[in-house]
């Protein structure tokens, strides 16, 4: 019998906490996408969640379970952006203060939004400093309750409500594809998928430059890598958490990798054909389908569009870079 505390009941309890607070985001379909991949795709659009990403679900659930004394002292978190915004907003909704450790090169949009929700932001150098130890020290020194971005049972349970809604909205699925950073979202979603009858296979997707989870699952133990150099800032983790790794080992069936170029292609497809703006990390699962990294022919497949926090200048720059690359490859005869 499993000893992992995260179970289907944990996610259902989180759904009760989030009811009327988190958005019940839409599930999008696209005939163009179905034609491209040969299956029926149901895309859970968490880009329309509060703060623009699924992270709100976990942050709110975790803060709601703190004692009144803990909330009175305030909360702390570390994040590249989406969890930062989520904790900032969730803290404000619980009438408590938030102090967030963020990388100095975090997207300006995410920094501004985090401060806009009322949080105090402390910055660090993500390539020279280790955020977990810095965040732990910050919380300890200031007497704050630490709400980590993924390695926390209540955070994972809250994030798992994404899949709980998806199965309710889309009906039975043949497989579920989820982007992976530290593993909180896929841990929660896989818990729901494995509770279905029959259990649904779960595939995780990472950027090729940030394959710490794929390496860890292949090795059978946590493998730490250098901070990834990828456009998917929400997936620049160096290792899965101990809790998320335990869940993923038990409930995730496979991992695939996508390149930054494939992520940009997915962002463009979502914008042009589905009329949705996605940040790079938010497009990772879609990228895996469009790049043929997962064969979904004849299947009903669920994917999570996990976030849409990207500024217009950054979005346009990525699209322009992709156009130049395509033109160069075409001139060299590399593109048919």
Could you tell me how far the N terminus lies from the C terminus, measured between alpha carbons in angstroms?
Answer: 53 Å
Largest sheet: 6 strands, mixed
Number of strand segments: 10
Low-pLDDT regions: 327-336
Count of helical stretches: 14
Helix and strand string, N-terminal first?
HEHEHHEHEHEHEHEHEHHEHHEH
Shape: globular
Helix content: 40-55%
Overall average residue pLDDT:
93
User: What Rg, in angstroms, do the CA atoms define?
Assistant: 19 Å
The percentage of residues in β strands lies in 5-15%
Question: Going across the major beta sheet, what is the strand order?
Answer: 1-2-10-7-8-9
Helix/strand class:
alpha/beta
Polypeptide structure, described:
The structure is a single chain. With 336 residues, the chain is an alpha/beta fold. The protein contains 14 helices and 10 strands. The protein has helices at residues 8-18, 31-37, 55-64, 68-73, 82-93, 108-116, 131-142, 153-170, 184-194, 212-219, 242-251, 260-273, 284-290, 312-331, and strands at residues 27-28, 40-45, 75-78, 98-103, 120-124, 145-146, 175-179, 202-207, 254-258, 300-305. A 6-stranded mixed β-sheet has the order 1-2-10-7-8-9, sandwiched between helices. A 4-stranded parallel β-sheet has the order 5-4-3-6, sandwiched between helices. Helix 9 packs parallel to helix 11 and helix 12 (260-273) packs across helix 13. The longest helix has 20 residues, at 312-331. The chain is globular and about 55 Å long. The N and C termini lie far apart (53 Å). Residues 327-336 have low confidence and may be disordered.
